Amino acid sequence: MQLTKNFYKIEFESRDGAKMPDHVLQNIKELADNLQKVRDILAEAININSGYRSEAHNKIVGGVKNSQHLLGKAADVSMKNYTSKELAVIFEDLILNSVIKEGGLGLYNGFVHYDIRGTRARWNLSTKYKDFYK
Fold first, then answer.
1. What is the 3-state secondary structure (H, E, C) of 64-97?
2. N or C: which end of the chain has fewer CB within 10 A?
3. Using N-to-C axis directions, what is the helix angle for 22-42 and 84-96, rounded to 10°?
4. Helix (H, G, I), strand (E, B), or coil: what is residue 120?
5. Segment 54-75, tens digit of pLDDT
6. Cα dihedral 79→44→37→7 (10° resolution)
7. How does pLDDT run across 1-25, given as a tens digit for each residue?
8. Residue 131: what pLDDT?
9. Which residues contact 57 (CB under 8 A, 6 or more apart)?
């Protein structure tokens, strides 16, 4: 199922093969719409490393109990020509300029977590980047 011009449902499926509930699919569609805006601006494919996670899969990967991935509101993403730090700055700038929805932003080695929870949450950002975000 095609969600946006460049994103498909299969990219966001739980890696353990669990069926995606309908209410989760609605969140995934909203998440994909926001990621499509980023992709259009940067003109480069976004790799979805993790999207929706079933509870079982979330436990296996060490996800927190209240993970936005369980709701289909989060994706861990990477891009070929951008470091994780560069992506975190880009996502933050797009959030601050109301291009994409406010939510969670986490910096990791090799990927950035972005979610559409609707409230600001930040983690694993270096002091340098925390200062940038003020």
1. CCCCHHHHCCEEEEEECCECHHHHHHHHHHHHHC
2. C
3. 100
4. coil
5. 999 999 999 999 999 999 999 9
6. -80
7. 999 999 999 999 999 999 999 999 9
8. 52
9. 14, 15, 16, 18
Strand partners, 113: 76, 106
Strand 47-50 and strand 121-123: the pairing is: unpaired
What is the pLDDT at residue 134?
47
Q: Report residue 132 as tokens.
A: 């940038």
d(CA 134, CA 132) in angstroms, rounded, equals 6
Residue type, 48: I
Which is it for the CA torsion 73, 27, 80, 39, positive or negative?
negative
Determine the Cα–Cα distance for residues 51 and 9; give it in Å rounded to an integer: 10
Rounded CA gap, 92 and 104, in Å?
Answer: 10
